[in-house]
């Protein structure tokens, strides 16, 4: 059997290939029909185990392998690898709907060997029906990135809970293989308790010998941008820059391109803003056609480019697990590869936002379930949003958890209460506390004077770890320059000050609101595309906006000049505004009107107090969905009669959801104004791409 397995290995990787320690042992465990958990370092070759196991099992007449895989980029990468040993691997996912009929036909005719799906597909009725039609049944069940099924895994994806339910229904002779690089002892115990107490654990050392790690403290975004432009051209080969947000992916990629570096952003919906799709971008990186992809964690687990020469983090990740996974993309077939972590002042703020937004609390679950329970005829997602101040994504998380645990069920588009007593704990408080501890560990990593790789391995409970001898701390000297010159930072600051965000007009009123307005916002009442001068808090104008608003309590002449110059010389809306109005506030009655009035003077057009705030409302940033945002403010504003009838520049300081602009613009148009152009000093993220 080993000779057969080695033959397939050479077919995949070449005649010189040989198994790594524990690879054949893992294959042997699987084809012996054991439940097996493989915990091995990134780049070790976990996919080889399930490819070769599948080939051997299929040769002996077994049914199809079902591979649960968390990322589409991982699926595409694996399908190409599987072809090398004659495995026909197919996938069902949201990006290939036009192929579903063909794929399902192949599965029913036993003409494919591996079906790769995301965990979310498990809840799809069509997929569940397909499983019943597989004539030979499931021959092997694989859970890739298995740490995700743990309550303590790094990612909150409720559909991973469905995996355990399927595993528990499999016949005893169907092997189950779980693989991961990032399970510490606590997570291994959790996986074992869910997949099977008799699971065989094959665990190896996690040290990645080729990686050279360095941490560099550069406080501002401008300093980090300057560092990238200075150093990336000096690193051979291609790589990945990881950013915490899609806005930063776009910003960093655009900056690098202005500096002559071939860089593209990569994130979940990149094709909506760029002509290139994610598969296009992956191929370009794989073929060394570009220098760098600037990515969120969408290009993470399992992406396999053996000669990737560097991974740089623009911000500090939230966990050692995420960091180890991401730097593990580099240096798989190289003797030396860089892993450079840039860390600065906003890192904690970003990660704390993600931590607090990640998990539905027990209170939110109870609130959503109460709405379902109180409905006589079921309740839709929009019905939940109308009743509970909760974001749509969070509401869907709650509904999915309640459905998985059988406290509610879905029929059509509505949810109904089941008879199962509610006694769930989402572990949100425990996991959130654990995430904060992990954030502290990442801070310790950035501050340690000991070996970085050894620190990481010990956090993952690798008792074989030792100092790597290759990182900046081991060598006691920088691997790459840790500094930037003032003139380089100044250039980056000017770039950031030149950035602006398009404010897309809201085009439809939220469904089910109490304002009496439904459907499309009529063309005669729509705002035109607006602009935000900056991203709130960034190192360009965004930082000054934040300081002026909360510390100085008035906006400086510098911001007035910057706004006027932008409107007159960069934006140049056509037709130009005839007058200026402000979005008023009862909390800060003079802040925005004063700025808008001075801006109007600088633009050479009149300012009118055209809109009054007639009653207090909750701050929009505390409203979690569109229904609540519109209802919160709709009757709070009144347009003064006899306003000027020309085109309006509608000014606010900070844009959150965009609904305040849309409601005020609607009221202005209804009262007889011309075109309304929203203009904000900063956006917290509701805008789209910079133009």
Secondary structure: elements and pairs:
Layout: H1 2-13, H2 23-31, E1 36-39, H3 46-59, E2 64-68, H4 72-82, E3 89-91, H5 100-108, E4 114-117, H6 125-132, E5 138-144, H7 160-169, E6 176-180, H8 185-195, E7 200-203, E8 211-217, H9 221-231, E9 239-242, H10 246-258, E10 263-266, H11 278-286, E11 292-295, E12 310-313, H12 320-327, E13 337-343, H13 347-358, H14 362-374, H15 381-387, H16 392-404, E14 408-411, E15 414-417, H17 428-447, H18 452-459, H19 472-475, H20 486-498, E16 501-503, E17 530-535, H21 541-552, H22 557-571, E18 579-582, H23 591-603, E19 611-613, H24 626-633, E20 637-639, E21 648-655, H25 659-670, E22 676-683
Parallel strand pairs: 1-6, 1-7, 2-4, 2-5, 3-4, 5-6, 8-13, 9-11, 9-12, 10-11, 12-13, 17-22, 18-21, 21-22
Antiparallel strand pairs: 14-15, 16-17, 19-20
Helix pairs in contact: 1-3, 2-3, 9-20, 13-17, 14-16, 22-23
Describe what you observe in this structure.
- This protein is α/β, with parallel strands linked by helices.
- The chain folds into 4 domains: 2-203, Rossmann fold (3-Layer(aba) Sandwich); 211-347 and 448-492, 3-Layer(aba) Sandwich (Rossmann fold), CATH 3.40.50.300; 360-425, Winged helix-like DNA-binding domain superfamily/Winged helix DNA-binding domain (Arc Repressor Mutant, subunit A), CATH 1.10.10; 499-683, Rossmann fold, CATH 3.40.50.
- The chain is built from 25 helices and 22 strands.
- The strands form 5 sheets. A 7-stranded parallel β-sheet has the order 3-4-2-5-6-1-7, with helices on both faces. The chain has a 6-stranded parallel β-sheet with strand order 8-13-12-9-11-10.
- Helix 5 (100-108) links the parallel strand 3 and strand 4 (114-117).
- Helix 9 (221-231) packs across helix 20 (486-498).
- The longest helix has 20 residues, at 428-447.
- It starts with a helix and ends in an 8-residue tail after the last strand.
- Mean pLDDT is 91; it is low at 686-691.
């Amino acid at each position: 059997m080993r000779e057969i397995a080695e033959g397939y290995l050479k077919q995949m990787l070449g005649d010189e290939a040989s198994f790594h320690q524990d690879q054949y042992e893992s294959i042997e465990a699987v084809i012996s029909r054991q439940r097996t958990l493989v915990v091995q370092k990134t780049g070790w070759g976990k996919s080889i185990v399930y490819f070769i196991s599948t080939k051997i099992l299929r040769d002996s007449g077994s049914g199809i392998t079902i591979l649960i895989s968390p990322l589409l980029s991982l699926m595409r990468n694996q399908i190409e690898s599987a072809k090398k040993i004659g495995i026909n691997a197919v996938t069902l996912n949201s990006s290939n709907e036009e192929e579903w009929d063909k794929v399902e036909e192949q599965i029913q005719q036993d003409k494919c060997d591996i079906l790769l799906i995301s965990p979310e597909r498990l809840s799809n009725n069509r997929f569940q029906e397909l499983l019943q039609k597989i004539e030979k049944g499931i021959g092997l069940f694989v859970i890739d990135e298995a740490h995700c099924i743990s309550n303590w895994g790094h990612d909150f994806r409720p559909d991973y809970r469905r995996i355990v339910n399927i595993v528990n229904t499999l016949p005893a002779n169907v092997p189950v293989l779980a693989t991961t690089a990032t399970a510490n002892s606590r997570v291994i115990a959790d996986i074992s308790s869910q997949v099977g107490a008799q699971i065989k654990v094959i665990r190896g050392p996690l040290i990645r010998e080729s990686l050279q790690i360095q941490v560099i403290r550069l406080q501002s975004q401008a300093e980090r941008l300057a560092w990238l432009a200075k150093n990336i051209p000096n690193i051979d080969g291609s790589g990945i820059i990881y950013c915490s947000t899609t806005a930063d992916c776009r910003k960093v990629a655009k900056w690098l391109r202005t500096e002559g570096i071939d860089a593209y952003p990569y994130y979940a919906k990149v094709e909506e803003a760029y002509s290139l799709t994610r598969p296009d971008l992956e191929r370009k990186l794989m073929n060394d056609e570009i220098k760098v992809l600037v990515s969120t964690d969408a290009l993470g687990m399992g992406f396999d480019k053996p000669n990737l020469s560097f991974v740089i983090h623009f911000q500090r990740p939230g966990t050692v697990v995420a960091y180890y996974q991401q730097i593990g993309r580099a240096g798989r077939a190289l003797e030396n590869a860089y892993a450079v972590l840039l860390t600065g002042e906003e890192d904690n703020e970003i990660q704390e936002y993600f931590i607090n937004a990640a998990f539905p609390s027990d209170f939110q679950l109870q609130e959503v379930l109460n709405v379902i329970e109180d409905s006589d005829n079921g309740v839709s997602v929009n019905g939940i949003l109308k009743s509970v101040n909760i974001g749509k994504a969070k509401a869907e998380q709650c509904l999915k958890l309640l459905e998985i645990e059988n406290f509610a069920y879905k029929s059509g588009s509505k949810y109904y209460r089941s008879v199962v007593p509610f006694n769930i704990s989402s572990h949100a408080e425990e996991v959130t506390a654990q995430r904060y501890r992990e954030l502290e560990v990442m801070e310790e990593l950035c501050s340690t004077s000991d070996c970085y790789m050894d620190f990481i391995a010990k956090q993952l409970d690798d008792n074989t770890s030792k100092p790597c001898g290759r990182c900046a701390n081991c060598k006691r000297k920088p691997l790459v320059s840790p500094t930037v010159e003032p003139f380089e930072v100044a250039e980056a600051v000017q770039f950031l000050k030149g950035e602006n965000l398009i404010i897309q007009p809201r085009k439809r009123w939220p469904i089910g609101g109490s304002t009496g307005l439904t459907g499309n916002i009529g063309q005669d009442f729509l705002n035109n595309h607006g602009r935000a001068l900056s991203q709130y808090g960034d190192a360009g104008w965004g930082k000054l906006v934040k300081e002026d608003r909360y510390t100085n309590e008035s906006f400086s002449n510098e911001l007035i000049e910057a706004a006027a110059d932008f409107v007159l010389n960069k934006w140049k809306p056509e037709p130009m505004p005839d007058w200026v109005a402000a979005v008023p506030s009862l909390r800060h009655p003079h802040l925005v009107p004063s700025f808008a009035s001075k801006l109007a003077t600088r633009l050479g057009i009149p300012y009118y107090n055209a809109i009054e705030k007639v009653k207090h409302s909750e701050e929009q940033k505390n409203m979690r969905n569109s229904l609540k945002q519109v209802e919160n403010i709709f009757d709070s504003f009144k347009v003064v009669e006899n306003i000027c009838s020309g085109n309006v520049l509608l000014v606010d300081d900070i844009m959150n959801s965009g609904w305040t602009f849309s409601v005020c613009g609607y009221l202005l148009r209804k009262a007889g104004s011309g075109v309304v152009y929203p203009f904000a000093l900063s956006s917290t993220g509701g805008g789209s791409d910079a133009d």
